């Protein structure tokens, strides 16, 4: 099944639901970052939550989610937009931490700290809002962020199933948001149904589509709005890295030229390496002048 998300309104337009299958894009992240199971589950959940959040925004807006926890994973960064593009990385890709039950212990691997969400609306300003990491299991942390920072009561479900060989079996998620005017009994009904449904990763593994996942919660009381294909994409380029190097300035570049004679840069998001030899560093130095 290809990766995509579906937006829907439910319960007479008083509830907004997004559901997504992200198995392929999380598999791609697993491969390029060589993620071990707990790192894969953590980054996979954040990529999934992130790409769904991106779909809530308009046109060229860009959204960056940073998780600064004190657990063994270190930090995580995910960047996304309204077109279904997402990319991300984790400081320590090699974490394999389990509960006694065998379930991946994402909460402990993430630890305590803060979640920061920056919206680049491509106008002059960037807006960053932050909230405390609650459990480190990602879904609860994003739900808390929506409720506290955006005053939108939300339920978030995110799940990634990982094989013993680190490959991704299934990944997906949903975000449900309560709109003004939603009846108290509808909220109670939703809470009841969410507590009864299977974990999202299991539903995806069993072949349920994003539409099916929404129907599990609404029991058919919904209206689909649109479908968005999702993909892991990086927008890095040699030119961007050149600009970054030029910004180091003449003095520092000359020092690198004399000491190392070459520069090897590496994109955190897609692991592409850009190499600059002696002649190329010299021309970068020319450009600083
Ligand atoms: Zn890149």
Instruction: Sum up the overall morphology in one term.
Output: elongated
- Summed up, the domain count is 2
Ligands in the model, by name, code or SMILES, are: zinc ion
Radius of gyration (Å): 21 Å
CATH architecture of the largest domain: 3-Layer(bab) Sandwich
Average pLDDT for all residues? 94
Q: Tell me the series of helices and strands, N- to C-terminal.
A: EEHHEEEHEEHEEHHHEEHHEEH
Structural class: alpha+beta
Work out the helix count: 10
Please state roughly what percent of the residues sit in beta strands, choosing from under 5%, 5-15%, 15-25%, 25-35%, 35-45% or over 45%. 25-35%
- Low-pLDDT stretches: none
Largest sheet: 6 strands, mixed
Would you identify the CATH H-level superfamily of the largest domain?
Hsp33 domain
- Order of strands across the biggest sheet? 7-6-3-4-5-11
The total of beta strands comes to 13
N/C terminus separation: 52 Å
Question: What percentage of residues falls in helices of 4 or more residues?
Answer: 25-40%
Q: If you consult CATH, what is the topology of the largest domain? A: Hsp33 domain
The CATH class label of the largest domain is: Alpha Beta
Task: Put the structure in a nutshell.
The protein is an alpha+beta fold and 289 residues long. The chain has helices at 23-33, 37-54, 106-110, 139-149, 184-196, 200-205, 210-218, 238-246, 250-259, 278-288, and strands at residues 4-10, 15-21, 62-69, 75-81, 85-90, 113-120, 126-132, 154-162, 168-178, 222-229, 231-232, 263-266, 273-276.
């Amino acid at each position: 099944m290809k990766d995509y998300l579906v937006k829907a309104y439910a319960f007479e337009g008083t509830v907004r639901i997004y559901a997504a299958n992200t198995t392929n894009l999380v598999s791609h992240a697993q491969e390029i970052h060589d993620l071990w199971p707990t790192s894969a589950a953590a980054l996979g959940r954040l990529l999934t939550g992130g790409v769904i959040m991106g779909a809530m925004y308009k046109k060229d807006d860009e959204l960056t989610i940073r998780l600064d926890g004190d657990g063994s994973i270190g930090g995580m960064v995910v960047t996304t937009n309204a077109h279904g593009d997402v990319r991300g990385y984790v400081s320590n890709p090699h974490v394999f931490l389990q509960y006694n039950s065998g379930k991946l212990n994402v909460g402990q691997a993430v630890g305590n700290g803060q979640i920061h969400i920056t919206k680049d609306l491509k106008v002059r300003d960037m807006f960053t809002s932050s909230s405390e990491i609650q459990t480190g299991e990602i879904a609860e942390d994003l739900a808390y962020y929506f409720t506290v920072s955006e005053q939108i009561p939300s339920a978030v479900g995110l799940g990634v199933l990982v094989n013993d060989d680190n490959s991704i079996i299934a990944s997906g998620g949903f975000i449900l948001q309560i709109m003004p005017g939603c009846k108290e009994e509808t909220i109670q009904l939703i809470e009841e149904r969410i507590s009864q449904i299977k974990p999202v990763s299991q539903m995806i593994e069993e072949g349920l589509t994003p539409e099916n996942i929404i129907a599990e919660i609404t029991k058919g009381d919904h209206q689909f709005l649109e479908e968005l294909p999702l993909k892991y994409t990086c927008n890095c380029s040699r030119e961007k890295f050149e600009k970054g190097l030029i910004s180091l300035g003449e003095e520092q570049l000359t020092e690198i030229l004399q000491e190392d004679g070459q520069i090897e840069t590496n994109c955190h998001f897609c692991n592409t390496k850009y190499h600059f030899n002696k002649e190329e560093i010299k021309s970068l130095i020319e450009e600083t002048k």
